[in-house]
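Memo to structure team: turn this sequence into structure tokens by end of day. - J.P.
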Amino acid sequence: PALVQTLCWRLSALAAFHGGGPWEVDHRALMEQARNVTLEQARTEWFDWERTSTRGGKPRTMTLGGLVGSAVLRNVPPELRALLLTGTLAHAGKAAVFGHGKIELAELR
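Reply from structure team:
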């Protein structure tokens, strides 16, 4: 559910600032659907990395972090699949403007 919520926030912000209006999607319904998805396998870990910001003229080091890894989901309804697919284009979470929050999808058979 956390990933779905983060994607909803991201897409809502993109719609408001670049799409000419609000994103007309029932976030609560998507969250409820996410609660019913089966997390079959998760291999994730927290990873910190550093970047240097030169904003303001004086270089400073910033520590950024996030989850890396993979997960296998089962019973994902079509609406959530569409949201996750959109997330592959928009990214999710903090520092998405730096390319963080990347999501890749693969269908397992």
